[in-house]
Amino acid sequence: MLIPTLIMGVLAVALLWIGYRQGEGQHVEGLRITLNLTLQILPLLIFAFIVAGMVQVLLPQESVARWVGGESGMRGIFIGSFAGALAPGGPYVSMPIAASLAGTGASVGTVVAFLTGWSLWSLNRIPMEVGILGWRLTIARAVSTLVFPPLAGMIAQMIFGNGR
Q1: 27 closest CA partner among 35, 36, 16, 37
Q2: CB within 8 A of 63, min separation 6: which ones?
Q3: Measured in Å, how far apart are the chain's first and last C-alpha atoms?
Q4: Contact 91, 45 (CB under 8 A)
Q5: Distance CA 35, CA 72 (A)
Q6: Exposure of 92 by Cβ count < 10 A (0-12 exposed, 13-18 middle, 19+ buried)?
Q7: Which of 140, 138, 119 is nearest to 130 (CA)?
């Protein structure tokens, strides 16, 4: 986590410096927008991290191993895919949950299937998609992505499943 944090820190300082050098208070405006975004997203982040932490503490490791661990095979991959489709919110919610699943012993295939299911099958997105794109395109997109979360989970399990 240190390297991504350092990269983001250097990028933030560089952009702040560029904004300052351009004048007209752009750096101040950027910091004001930053504060507003932080105040909007911080509660969601806090709750997402609470969920992720509680998943690690409350789910018995034996149950996780049995249902979605390395020996669960396709059952775990399908559970991960469908859990991803049901996961609420954006990446601020799903990434901590995925990390929590990995931390409790879920297989790499299950975690990849979860993230792929969240990104491709998310049920939260359907009403907006229908409203903007209509039923025909929404159904076309949904049907054309049906195989990918389990497939991604299987590929990840084959390549990375044995600790390689």
Answers
A1: 16
A2: none
A3: 20
A4: no
A5: 44
A6: middle
A7: 138
Q: Which of 65-69, 118-122, 154-158 has the lowest mean pLDDT?
A: 65-69
The tokens describing 28, both together, are 């101040």
Q: Where are the alpha helices (DSSP H) in the chain?
A: 2-22, 26-58, 61-68, 73-86, 91-103, 108-121, 126-133, 135-144, 148-160
pLDDT of residue 164: 42
Tokens of 73: 């095979």
**33 Cβ contact partners less than 8 Å away, ≥ 6 residues apart:** none
- Taking the C-alpha atoms of residue 54 and residue 79, their distance in angstroms, rounded to an integer, is 19
Alpha-carbon span 155 to 141, nearest angstrom: 22
Which residues 6+ apart lie within 8 Å of 74 measured at CB? 150, 154
